[in-house]
Design a protein that fits this description.
The protein is α/β, with parallel strands linked by helices and 405 residues long. The chain has helices at 10-18, 164-172, 193-196, 204-213, 229-242, 259-267, 303-322; strands at 4-8, 26-30, 41-42, 52-53, 57-61, 73-81, 95-98, 110-114, 130-133, 142-143, 154-156, 177-181, 185-191, 219-225, 245-249, 273-278, 285-291, 294-299, 336-340, 351-360, 362-366, 386-390, 399-404. A seven-stranded mixed beta sheet has the order 1-16-17-18-15-13-14, with helices on both faces. The chain has a five-stranded mixed beta sheet with strand order 8-5-7-6-9, with no helix packed on it. The protein has a five-stranded mixed barrel with strand order 19-21-20-22-23.
Length: 405
């Protein structure tokens, strides 16, 4: 890893950043949204957990032959089996009213006649004395224990995101905890004396926090630092002791007051950092380092440049930290093929162009209205839903690939 350089490609820089991180250590915690499994999740209980009714209706013993019962026929009702009640077995010649989910004795050879196939009106009501059956079902409408999954069945493998569907399946199968990767701890340091003294508001810090929080659970600490090298070293030391990733904005070019680059080059062992230009617009000035073993990603200070750099580099980096499958490249992400509704700017270098995406019959995309977006045009970002990575001209009516945020 060289200390300085120019004109890395986007892919080269992406690979450099991913070489700095690995999935975070595992811990055993209650199952919750946004964690990523470090070990497979295995069912402890079968699904269903017991034989039960798949319908609201009436449970009767299985007829001895298809012709032994001729419809219509009438049976006395000898009891109720709501969901949650103990299983009961009707004697031959009788019926039980049973609700969906109501327990059926294990292995009971019977069938549930849907209420719609009887003379009993659907819905709440007192227990009838008799039921007249107008039609026999083609199947027994009994869900057998373990017919969906057996105990010991793998619900999900390692590197799976815990989401609402997995939580529902796991809890149903008796699983309430899991071995997952720890939630990332990220320190954001927005630099610049103009931010510290209030000459300019810090929009980058809150923007980065919002973008990274949108990727899933993350523990973020955010601070603003001026141009004091001593103060920035202190902030780096504190962040490295408390974080898995440090993200800075500003101070990465070659100016006299570009404090991030100066402090890292003066402090970090040569070979553990890089600053230079990536072949992209906006956001060409970039940098990365290891500070006391913790990865540092140094973003440019202009807000649009920082915004697109988060989507291009940091969002996939957080996925890898969380323990999700590592991307194979910068464009290994969800994408759509869209039709340009307007001409896109001509890219003199690879251009990361925020754009609006419309899903109205066909998929269309267009750049923000007005003049070509520059790296400080933060007010052009609202209303965009994704970006296009352009290496050649795209005019209205042509197809292009867009990557939703």
């Amino acid at each position: 890893m060289t200390s300085t350089g120019t004109d890395l490609s986007i892919e080269e820089y992406f690979d450099r950043l991913h070489a700095l991180v690995r999935a975070l250590p595992a811990e055993h915690v209650p199952l919750s949204q946004g964690h990523v499994l470090a070990e497979p999740l295995v069912a402890r209980l079968p699904l269903p957990a017991q034989d039960n009714s798949a319908m609201d209706g009436f449970l009767i013993p299985q007829p001895s032959s298809p012709d032994s019962l001729t419809v219509p026929f009438t049976l006395p009702i000898v009891g109720d089996v709501p969901a949650g009640a103990s299983a009961q077995a009707p004697q031959p010649g009788t019926a039980l009213r049973i609700m969906t989910g109501g327990a059926v004795p294990a292995g009971f050879d019977g069938l549930v006649i849907p209420v719609e196939d009887t003379d009993i009106p659907p819905g709440p009501g007192p227990l009838p004395e008799t039921v007249t059956v107008h039609r026999l079902p083609e199947r027994n409408h009994i869900r057998r224990r373990g017919s969906h999954i057996e105990a010991g069945h793998q619900l999900a493998g390692a590197a799976t995101l815990v989401d609402a569907s997995l939580i529902a399946a796991a809890i149903s199968a008796g699983v309430s905890t899991a071995v997952v990767h720890r939630i990332p701890r990220v320190s954001i340091i927005a630099t610049g004396e103009e931010l510290r003294n209030g000459q300019l508001p810090d929009s980058n810090g809150p923007m980065l926090e919002a973008l990274m929080s949108a990727t899933g659970p993350v523990d973020i600490t955010r601070t603003v630092c001026g141009d004091s090298p001593v103060e920035l070293r202190r902030r780096f030391d504190k962040a490295a002791a408390e974080s898995d990733l440090i993200v800075t904005t500003g101070g990465v070019s070659a100016g006299a007051f570009d404090v991030v680059r100066a402090v890292i080059e003066d402090t970090v062992e040569r070979g553990s950092y890089w600053f230079g230009h990536v072949n992209q617009r906006p956001g060409a000035p970039q940098g990365h380092a290891l500070w006391n073993g913790v990865p540092v990603v140094c973003l440019p200070g202009n807000p649009v440049a920082a915004f697109v750099s988060v989507h291009l580099y940091l969002t996939p980096l957080l996925r890898s930290l969380r323990g999700l499958p590592r991307p194979t490249g910068v464009l290994d992400r969800p994408h759509l093929t869209a039709v340009a509704r307007a001409d896109f700017p001509h890219p003199h270098r690879p251009l990361i162009q925020p754009c609006s995406i419309a899903l109205e019959g066909s998929i269309t995309a267009s750049p923000p209205p007005g003049p070509r977006m520059r790296s400080h045009h933060v007010a052009a970002l609202p209303g965009t839903q994704g970006f296009a990575l352009l290496t050649s001209s795209v005019t209205a009516g042509e197809q292009l690939t867009v990557y939703p945020y």
